[in-house]
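Checklist before submission:
- one chain only
- standard amino acids only
- sequence pasted in full

Submission:
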Amino acid sequence: MIYKVAVATSDGINVDSHFGHVLSFVIYDVDEETGEYDDVEERDVAAACSGGNCGSIQVVQLGCGGQNGSSSCGGSGAPDTPMEKLAEALSDVDYVLCAKIGPHAIRALAKYNVSAYDIVLPVGQAIKKINDFRLKIKARKQNLNTGV
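Returned file contents:
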């Protein structure tokens, strides 16, 4: 089984960048059985953090009233914060690896079933840890299903 990992790296060698500050992610395809991985894409994104503002929570006024008394409680469903837009840009990957990630980013990614980990290691070692983790979970599930 092949799965995707997005890595925040400034040099292509180490996981060393903050999730909200990165301008591109290297996307890897990982073969779960062999642990082999290939970088398949460098995906440019807009940084979600700027000027000390990193994924801030939106303030919603009571009553949802817009200007001029209009009522606009509905939403378009489209991501409207920089953090949500960044999470949507990574919605097709299974894991995000970065040197630092905050709770807003983790929640935004979780909406797309993307797991995020902050880890500072060379890319190969970090991907190996993710793959080992996946294999352990898979083995546990099999043991539960067989009653072992």
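Reviewer check: The beta strands are 2-7, 24-31, 37-44, 49-50, 53-54, 95-98, 115-118.
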